[in-house]
Amino acid sequence: MTMIFMPHKTTRRVLSTFPNFTPSGVALNVVDSCKYLGHIIFSVNDDDQDIARQMSLLYARANMLIRKFSKCSRDVKLCLFRAYCTQFYGAELWQCFRSSVLQRFEAAYVKCVKMLFGFARRDSVTAMFYELGLPTFKTIIHNAKVKMDSCLKVHSNVLIRSACSAVYV
User: Fold this and answer.
1) Which residues contact 27 (CB under 8 A, 6 or more apart)?
2) Quick one: which of 97, 92, 93 has its CA closest to 141?
3) 165 in helix, strand or coil?
4) Which H/E stretch holds residue 127?
5) Which CA distances in Å does 142 have to 21, 69, 79, 145, 148?
6) Beta strands of the chain (E only): which ranges?
7) Which residues have C-beta within 8 Å of that of residue 45, sequence separation ≥ 6?
8) Residues 104, 55: contact at Cβ < 8 Å?
9) What pLDDT is stored for residue 64 in this prediction?
10) What angle do helix axes 74-85 and 99-117 make, rounded to 10 degrees?
11) Could you tell me the CA-to-CA distances from 66 to 28, 63, 78, 111 in Å, in that order?
């Protein structure tokens, strides 16, 4: 499997089509996307579709919680929501995306909280998160990125540490 990443600026593109790679006489398939360690990588070098996939997973998880646990206490719902709906695998890797895509994901997160905990559509989002003690969407994304950065800076692998220090200089 082969993936070709094109530069964002069309003036920097050398070719619009590439010859097939044929190691050992077998042509490799050229793909536009692939899933690697749970994160979808796209040849257009943006994370919009991976963010949309995570948003769909959030809706699916929240709907399952609403369907199965709607009659449970608030404490039980909070525990379940924290476990199933505040973990966005790969969010720390999102670097290149349209802000509208992330805003839709944030709106989906707020909507899921309101639906599970019975808040009205017009209720204050700030007051809701304060009352529930849940992190906001931006806090979740920020914390994921900070955690990854701090792990990379003290990683036991020298190559990872040096690559990370080169980025943060």
Assistant:
1) 20, 21
2) 92
3) helix
4) helix 125-132
5) 40, 29, 21, 5, 10
6) 33-36, 39-42
7) 5, 6, 8, 96
8) yes
9) 97
10) 160
11) 45, 5, 12, 12
Nearest-angstrom CA–CA distance, 110 and 104: 10
pLDDT tens, residue by residue, 75-114: 999 999 999 999 998 888 888 899 999 999 999 999 999 9
For the chain, state the CA radius of gyration: 20
pTM over 0.85: no
Two tokens, residue 151: 């792990």
Q: Two tokens at 2?
A: 């082969």
For 99-124, b where at least 16 C-beta lie within 10 A, e where not — what string? eebbeebbebbbebbbbbbebeeeee
